[in-house]
Amino acid sequence: MSVKGTWSIILFALAIIIGAVVFFQNQQASGTEKKNVKQDTNYKNVEIVTLVNDGKFMRYAVNYPLFHQKELDDKIQSYANSALEHFKKTFSEAKDIDENKRFELNIDYDMVHYAKQSVAIHFTTYTYTGQQSGTTNHLTINFDFQKKNFLDTKDLFLPKTNYLKKLSYITYTELRKDKTLSKDQPLLQKGTAPTAQNFSQFALKEKYVEFYFPASQVAAEDLGSQTLAIKKTLLKDILKPEYMNKTKNKNEIKEPPPKRKAVKLPQKSKLDPNKKAIALTFDDGPNPATTTKILDALKVNKGHATFFVLGSRVQYYPGMLADILKGGNEIGNHSYNHPLLTRLPLKQAVKQVEDTQQLIEKASGYTPTHFRPPYGGTNQDINQAVDMKVSLWDVDPEDWKIRNSQQITSHVLSHAADGRTVLMHDIYDSSARAAVKIIHELTKQGYQLVTVSELEQLKKERIEQTPVQ
Ligand SMILES: [Zn+2]
């Protein structure tokens, strides 16, 4: 063999080796796809498809169900495949992928509901393509097996009913009960306004219609997505009968209870914006002997009041808080041990309020929204740091000084007027006796006795009612 021939063979062999190494490295980098199809053990007629790939620089796991129903299967496959194609394209176009920043795609699903009439599948897709953090997307598909079509919100409800308004009302009042969600009222109001878009993500279940609200629709983005399941019986005048139907909608397996649910229609406020209202407030308590007298009088007259309690006293009488709340009264925060907050370093002033807030929460599970600074003394820095509504007063009988029940009563009654807030102290017997008389008399005069929150709400309703001139 000539020298030239030998060299050719060596070069040829080298080329094969290099080629193999490159091929092997690519293979390792992007991996090999494994596909698996198996019967779902929970649901008959359902197959689970799994596509897995575990490469050095990228990996994915894609799971989806198939139902042997062409329209439905086509939609599911096209959803999964287009997400996968897009992910692979992003990977192939990426440069210098760090092994520690391995690309990742995860598609998983929950069979939220599977019955004769319809199925609801909730997909969760997680994608990571080298950024700071990955993104999670949700999609819920509802399919009607009988009608062979996908369901939009409007397909669930009877035409010519104002179903969006009803969904909006239930959702807003229900979500507002969650204190983390009620912090941003304008966003909650916007995110639950009666538009088709706000209620476009849902699952039709056996006993509930569950709505999904993506992050930042009804609450700040960092709180994540939110859900509310509305019991179908609350929707019976607007939901189409085929979706109410108990036998056709019976899920094949038992559905877990929803995380957050509305099972009763929210009660309309019993307050009448056209009737005069006054907010009685009691500071420095609780004190079982005297506070109870006031609570009894409120109960008899179906009235409410607000009790601005001290953290130090809550420690002694934690059980009193439940008694206060039972009748529909409100608890406010009046600091831990009554210092003039403006004289304290900011940190200590804030601690006075925060410690009290924690004590109240621990004793009653209730989180006050209103704060009344001792002596009414506060400033912008404190208000900002505390982040609660500051509640002051219009009528002050100086009951702590006079200690004469007759004089206190006549002062309050002669200064009472619609929309006012009265300051008293429930720790003195003279004040408690005066309060009992005041509660009876104001009720007789036609006043609604309301909490500070109710008074605010009432004033808001009155403004909304006033026609624009
Ligand atoms: Zn006080």
From TrEMBL:
Keywords: Hydrolase, Membrane, Metal-binding, Transmembrane, Transmembrane helix
Transmembrane segments: 6-24
GO cellular component: membrane
InterPro entries, sorted: DUF3298, Glyco_hydro/deAcase_b/a-brl, NODB_dom, PdaC, PdaC/RsiV-like_sf, Polysacc_deacetylase_ArnD
Any GO BP: carbohydrate metabolic process
Residue ranges of the region described as Disordered: 249-268
Ranges of biased composition (kind: Basic and acidic residues): 249-258
Gene Ontology molecular function, alphabetical: hydrolase activity, acting on carbon-nitrogen (but not peptide) bonds; metal ion binding
Pfam families (UniProt xref): DUF3298 (PF11738), PdaC (PF13739), Polysacc_deac_1 (PF01522)
Domain NodB homology per the UniProt entry, residue ranges: 276-450
Superkingdom per UniProt: Bacteria
PANTHER family noted in UniProt: CHITIN DEACETYLASE 1-RELATED, GLYCOSYL TRANSFERASE-RELATED
Name by which UniProt lists this protein: NodB homology domain-containing protein
Originating organism: Bacillus zhangzhouensis
